[in-house]
């Protein structure tokens, strides 16, 4: 009996200590700080955006590593994600999403209009079909739409480049949680899923970050020709630093100061390539890689930004 009391006391003290750490963390961050976290999910992408009590997850890597990031970065009692974005239907971007659906309440899901009959996409489709709270809250991304996280923070959808008459995401159009042709989805042609990547521009006053998913040089060129990209502070490098992305023309158009590369250690693809790293270094871009640093968080007050310690 005494041992049980001691155990309960230790458990109580641990919980109190954790809550005090969380309160201290939030107090340091302050109410006006936006955070952008590149989660270490190995060879894949997962980006967590946090503003006060609003959380947005962009992709989820493959497997359960994304859960470690979410449990570490989110407040202890917050098990809700206001928005989840699946940028395109490749396994290293959506493979972890069924686990996220199991552990968290998802309020809105944003998808490109394409599907793939792969085990990972089928698993995602099955998870979505079970989420009754997503009824009316599945959206297809189109260029030009905006998502307001606050009066001063927006996510603008730059791609896919198909235009939409609706200039904002209202989260009320879909009537089913079924990713089917009836809802506007169609199969992606072989080898084209990267071309349908959802590209997002995050803006908070003077701070901006461009999240390019696996966009390759032809999509980068299309964005330039459409006049949709300009100077940004932070670039989430496309396709894990593959030579098929991050073209010279694109870098000249966006002139980033900081680059985030989400990539697995000793991955078999040779990502990031020396070619891309050389382009970034020649322009004086500060590079942060998840294979070397693990999870990396950038914070901003809307005027300046910094790497969180």
Structural notes for this entry:
The protein is an alpha/beta fold and 309 residues long. It folds into two domains: 1-30; 31-307, Metallo-beta-lactamase, Chain A. Helix content is 28%, strand content 23%. The protein contains nine helices and 19 strands. The chain has helices at residues 2-29, 65-73, 91-94, 97-103, 119-129, 217-225, 248-254, 274-282, 290-293; strands at residues 34-38, 47-51, 54-58, 80-81, 83-85, 105-106, 109-111, 114-115, 138-140, 146-148, 153-159, 186-187, 199-204, 207-211, 234-236, 258-261, 286-289, 296-300, 305-307. It has an eight-stranded mixed beta sheet, with no helix packed on it. Strands 10-11-13-14-15-16-17 form a seven-stranded mixed beta sheet. The longest helix has 28 residues, at 2-29.
List keywords for this structure.
alpha/beta, Metallo-beta-lactamase, Chain A, 8-stranded mixed sheet, 7-stranded mixed sheet, 19 strands
Number of strand elements: 19
- Work out the strand percent: 15-25%
Which term fits the overall shape? globular
> Which topology of the largest domain does CATH recognise?
Metallo-beta-lactamase, Chain A
Category by helix and strand content: alpha/beta
Task: Report the CATH C-level class of the largest domain.
Answer: Alpha Beta
């Amino acid at each position: 009996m005494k041992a049980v009391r001691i155990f309960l006391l230790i458990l109580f003290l641990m919980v109190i200590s954790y809550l005090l750490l969380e309160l201290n963390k939030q107090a340091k961050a302050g109410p006006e700080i936006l955070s952008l976290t590149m989660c270490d999910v190995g060879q894949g992408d997962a980006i967590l955006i946090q503003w006060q009590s609003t959380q947005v997850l962009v992709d989820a890597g493959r497997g359960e590593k994304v859960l470690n990031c979410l449990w570490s970065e989110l407040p202890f009692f917050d098990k809700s994600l206001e928005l989840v974005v699946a940028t395109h239907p490749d396994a290293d971007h959506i493979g972890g999403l069924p686990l996220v659906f199991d552990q968290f309440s998802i309020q809105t899901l944003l998808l490109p209009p394409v599907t793939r009959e792969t085990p990972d996409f089928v698993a995602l489709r099955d998870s979505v079909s079970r989420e009754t709270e997503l009824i009316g809250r599945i959206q297809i991304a189109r260029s030009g739409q905006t998502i307001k996280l606050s009066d001063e923070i927006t996510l603008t959808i730059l791609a896919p480049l198909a235009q939409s008459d609706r200039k904002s995401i209202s989260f009320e159009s879909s009537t089913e949680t079924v990713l089917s042709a009836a809802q506007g989805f169609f199969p992606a042609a072989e080898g084209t899923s990267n071309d349908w990547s959802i590209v997002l521009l995050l803006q908070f006053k003077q701070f901006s970050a461009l999240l390019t998913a696996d966009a390759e040089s032809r999509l980068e060129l299309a964005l330039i020709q459409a006049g949709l990209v300009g100077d940004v502070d932070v670039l989430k490098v496309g396709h894990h630093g593959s030579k098929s992305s991050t073209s010279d023309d694109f870098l000249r158009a966006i002139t980033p100061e900081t680059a985030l590369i989400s990539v697995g250690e000793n991955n078999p693809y040779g990502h990031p390539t020396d070619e891309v790293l050389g382009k970034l270094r020649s322009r004086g871009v500060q590079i942060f890689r998840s294979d070397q640093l693990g999870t990396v968080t950038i914070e901003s007050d809307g005027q300046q930004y910094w790497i969180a310690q």
